[in-house]
């Protein structure tokens, strides 16, 4: 049987992969995909905690965590929509999605 | 059996996640992301979270990925050209990611409470959707409605952002 440690390690690895993508890739769309991976890693650890910490009252999983995951998925969908609209507006203005070419705000 | 399925889908998920950040062509990255999300849904099933698994497939593998692919095709992105590797980015990324992983592994090794097997639930979890629904509409009714307003604001914002001329 997998233990909570298994799920936390897998979730941490997924988060690390997403973080590495955000830090190392230069295409703004791939950076966005790295953000999605990190959000999913958080979701995985939340669901794992919910399943492994049964409520003492009725012996069922703690569904508050799953509701929180549901909200995170909703917010992530809204975030993707707004972010991609911003990327399209950016591409129209600058004709690029490469973060090194977008240095207008750089000090 | 459950352990084998857990490892199968976890390794698939991590391999496709690596594909997202290593592949040069944005379309291949997006396809890897779809597979990673679907494998993550399977991992959710091993945790008896059926509702979350279905929502994961519907929202992420369905809606979000269509949006990503649509934008990639719309912008007509080619495979990224190899540019000079920036040592500072790799060094910084390596330090941050390595530090995070080592801290996590230390915590996982040092806490014996994390190594207990999955406890059995008192009732069968066949009506998972109903249980999530009760929690959502009883305890979290106000946040649920606020999230509806958030989606409305996001929709209005997207329409405003994608107008032809941004003032």
Please outline the helices and strands.
The complex is a heterodimer of chains A (107) and B (167).
Chain A: H1 4-24, H2 28-52, H3 63-94
Helix pairs in contact in A: 1-2, 2-3
Chain B: H1 2-22, H2 26-46, H3 50-75, H4 87-110, H5 128-139, H6 141-161
List its salient traits:
heterodimer, A: mainly alpha, Helix Hairpins, elongated, B: 167 residues, Four Helix Bundle (Hemerythrin (Met), subunit A), 6 helices, 75% helix, globular
How many distinct domains of chain A? 1
Largest sheet of chain A: none
Binned strand content of chain B: under 5%
Give start-end ranges of low-pLDDT stretches of chain B.
none
| Secondary structure: number of strands of chain B | 0
Order of helices and strands of chain A: HHH
The H-and-E topology of chain B, N to C, reads as HHHHHH
The fraction of residues in strands of chain A falls at under 5%
Q: What best-fitting shape of chain A do the alpha-carbon axes yield? A: elongated
- Average predicted local confidence, pLDDT of chain B: 88
The CATH architecture assignment of chain A turns out to be Orthogonal Bundle
CATH topology of the largest domain in chain B: Four Helix Bundle (Hemerythrin (Met), subunit A)
Q: What's the CATH first level of the largest domain in chain B?
A: Mainly Alpha
Structural class of chain B: mainly alpha
User: Roughly what percent helix of chain A?
Assistant: over 70%
Question: What's the gyration radius of chain A in Å?
Answer: 18 Å
**Count of DSSP H/I helices of chain A:** 3
Sum up the overall morphology of chain B in one term. Answer: globular
Structural class determined from secondary elements of chain A: mainly alpha
For CATH, the homologous superfamily of the largest domain in chain B is named as NADH-ubiquinone/plastoquinone oxidoreductase chain 6, subunit NuoJ
Summarize this, please?
The complex is a heterodimer of chains A (107) and B (167). Chain A is mainly alpha-helical. Chain A has helices at residues 4-24, 28-52, 63-94.
């Amino acid at each position: 049987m997998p233990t909570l440690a298994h799920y936390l390690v897998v979730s941490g690895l997924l988060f690390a992969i997403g973080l590495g993508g955000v830090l190392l890739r230069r295409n703004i769309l791939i950076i966005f995909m790295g953000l999605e991976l990190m959000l999913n890693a958080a979701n995985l650890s939340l669901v794992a905690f919910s399943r492994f910490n049964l409520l003492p009252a009725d012996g069922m999983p703690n569904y508050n965590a799953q509701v929180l995951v549901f909200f995170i998925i909703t917010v992530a969908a809204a975030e993707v929509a707004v972010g991609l609209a911003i990327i399209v507006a950016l591409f129209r203005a600058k004709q690029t999605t490469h973060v090194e070419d977008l240095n207008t705000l750089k000090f | 059996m459950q352990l084998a399925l857990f490892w199968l889908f976890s390794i698939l998920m991590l391999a496709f996640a690596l594909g997202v950040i290593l592949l040069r062509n944005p379309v291949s990255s997006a396809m890897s992301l779809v597979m990673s999300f679907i494998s993550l849904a399977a991992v959710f099933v091993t945790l008896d979270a059926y509702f979350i698994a279905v929502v994961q497939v519907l929202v992420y593998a369905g809606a979000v990925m269509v949006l990503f692919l649509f934008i990639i095709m719309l912008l007509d992105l080619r495979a990224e050209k190899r540019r000079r590797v920036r040592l500072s980015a790799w060094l910084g990324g390596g330090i941050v990611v390595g530090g995070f992983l080592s801290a996590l592994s230390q915590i996982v090794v040092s806490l014996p409470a994390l190594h207990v097997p999955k406890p059995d639930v008192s009732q069968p979890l066949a009506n998972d959707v109903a249980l999530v629904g009760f929690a959502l509409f009883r305890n979290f009714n106000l946040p649920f409605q606020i999230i509806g307003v958030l989606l409305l604001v996001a929709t209005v914002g997207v329409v405003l952002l994608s107008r032809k001329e941004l003032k």
